[in-house]
Structure formats: structure tokens, C-alpha cells
């Protein structure tokens, strides 16, 4: 594995006395850290297999149990996938927002967060993403969103997938803004938001044709603003859109907890 960072300088005591309260990392953690950095730096890419055990053991100068412990660390972080009994070894799997969605949902449940909390958080994320998208979005980005409006959302309204298709549009808008942090947060909240929307429908609030057409007009107006490259107007319009949607969807459900929706 040419070009990888030698472990020897990382494993020394680094001048720390025996009485130091700082725990020295285990060798397996150091190996995992080096491999993790290689994924982050792009030396190991999505779908790549790690070199075989013999090569890694020789490279790092570690035993098989130590190497396997290091791989288990990466597996627990969803950075590699190990197929038991396979001769191909561990394969790199770059995780997406779903890696934090489940624990984040649990934390929201434990904290007693309401769906209103989640909705307000989205109102702080999506309008800024709309501004950024207006400023940096490409023609291909806009065409992708237009296609979702023309195909996916109408099909969703005519079936039982309206919650999924509308929220997919919201998520894709943030992802196309080019801001990785906003995209990760939006992805984290995505599943909760979809379930909330579906929960509202189950409460006997199906989307009427008039409401559907009003929603589509708002979406189309957003697309016009995005194509005009007016970031401030895009942010303002999308904030108003989310405020109205929140008021309608939360009416009478303001105190519903995240756990009630997650089921």
C-alpha cells in the first residue's frame, strides 16, 4: 500500500509520562485510523477491497487478531462491509446520512422532541439551501428538480406515496445546494419528516385537489426563481412555503412527539 502513513511515529509514547491521564490508543485503533484516513483522502474509494490480510499485516507490522479488530472498528462505523466466509475481504462502503438518522431519531425521542421541533429545524435549513441553489445550481440541477415535479410528485399524489415523493423533492433541493453540512442534516431529518407527513394523512387529512394544485404552484414558482438566480427571493419564497405548510400540517398536532410518528 504505497504512500500510506507509517505507524511507527504514531505509536510512541510521544513524551507522555506514565502518570498521564491520557489513554494511549490501542494498536488496532491506530491501524483503523490510518485506513479511515485513506478513505477520507480518497486513496480507498467506494467499492474498493482492502488488501488481503497477509499484505496488511506485513504493512502495519501487526498480528492477525489486531488487524481483524481494526477492521471490526471500521465495520462498526459502516466504512467497510465484510462478507463472512468470502475470500474477497472487506469492501469500502462510504456511508450517507442514514448512518446518523437512526441514532438521531432515538436522541430526539429521548429528549421529548415534537414534530414541531423538527419542522422548525427544517425551516432553518431549506431556505438557505434554496438561496445557495439559486446562486450555484446548474441547468442539470434544475432539470432534475423539474422532472420530479413533472413525474414523481403527480404520481405520488395519485397513489399512496405522496409523502415520500414530496419530501424527496425537499431533500434533493438541499443536496443540490452544494453545502455538505446542510445536506447531511436534511438527510438525517428526512425519514422523520416522511413519517410525519404520512402520519398526517392517516389522521384523515388527505391532500385535496385544490391543496395539491396550490402546492404545485408554489413548487413551480420556486423553480422560476431558482432559474432567475435570485438567491434572496428563493430563500424568502421557500421560507414562506415551509411556514404555511407547517401551519397546515401541524394544526391540532403541535404536541405530537417524534416517537409517536416513528412507531
TrEMBL record:
Region (Disordered): 1-21
UniProt-listed CDD domains: WHTH_GntR
Domain of life: Bacteria
Domain HTH gntR-type per the UniProt entry, residue ranges: 25-95
SUPFAM superfamilies assigned: GntR ligand-binding domain-like, Winged helix' DNA-binding domain
GO molecular function ontology, one term from the record: DNA-binding transcription factor activity
Pfam family, one: GntR
UniProt keywords, alphabetically: DNA-binding, Transcription, Transcription regulation
SMART domains registered for this protein in UniProt: FCD, HTH_GNTR
InterPro entries linked: GntR_C, TF_FadR/GntR_C, Tscrpt_reg_HTH_GntR, WH-like_DNA-bd_sf, WH_DNA-bd_sf
Protein name: GntR family transcriptional regulator
Organism whose genome encodes this protein: Mycolicibacterium holsaticum
Amino acid at each position: 500500500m504505497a504512500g500510506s502513513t507509517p505507524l511507527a511515529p504514531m505509536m510512541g509514547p510521544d513524551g507522555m509520562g506514565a502518570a498521564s491521564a491520557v489513554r494511549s490508543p490501542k494498536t488496532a485503533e491506530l491501524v483503523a485510523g490510518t485506513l479511515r484516513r485513506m478513505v477520507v483522502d480518497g486513496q480507498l474509494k467506494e467499492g474498493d477491497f482492502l488488501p488481503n490480510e497477509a499484505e496488511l499485516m506485513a504493512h502495519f507490522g501487526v498480528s492477525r487478531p489486531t488487524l481483524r479488530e481494526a477492521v471490526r472498528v471500521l465495520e462498526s462505523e459502516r466504512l467497510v462491509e465484510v462478507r463472512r466466509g468470502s475470500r474477497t475481504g472487506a469492501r469500502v462502503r462510504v456511508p450517507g446520512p442514514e448512518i446518523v438518522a437512526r441514532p438521531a431519531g432515538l436522541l430526539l425521542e429521548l429528549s421529548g422532541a415534537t414534530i414541531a421541533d423538527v419542522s422548525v429545524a427544517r425551516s432553518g435549513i431549506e431556505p438557505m439551501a434554496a438561496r445557495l441553489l439559486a446562486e450555484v445550481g446548474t441547468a442539470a440541477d434544475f432539470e432534475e428538480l423539474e422532472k420530479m415535479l413533472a413525474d414523481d410528485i403527480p404520481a405520488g399524489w395519485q397513489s399512496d406515496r405522496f409523502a415520500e415523493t414530496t419530501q424527496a423533492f425537499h431533500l434533493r433541493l438541499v443536496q443540490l445546494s452544494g453545502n455538505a453540512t446542510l445536506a447531511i442534516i436534511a438527510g438525517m431529518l428526512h425519514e422523520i419528516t416522511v413519517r410525519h407527513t404520512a402520519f398526517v394523512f392517516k389522521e384523515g387529512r388527505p391532500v385535496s385537489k385544490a391543496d395539491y394544485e396550490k402546492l404545485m404552484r408554489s413548487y413551480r414558482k420556486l423553480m422560476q426563481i431558482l432559474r432567475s438566480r435570485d438567491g434572496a427571493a428563493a430563500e424568502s419564497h421557500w421560507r414562506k412555503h415551509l411556514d404555511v405548510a407547517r401551519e397546515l400540517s401541524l394544526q391540532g398536532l403541535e404536541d405530537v412527539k417524534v416517537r409517536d410518528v416513528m412507531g
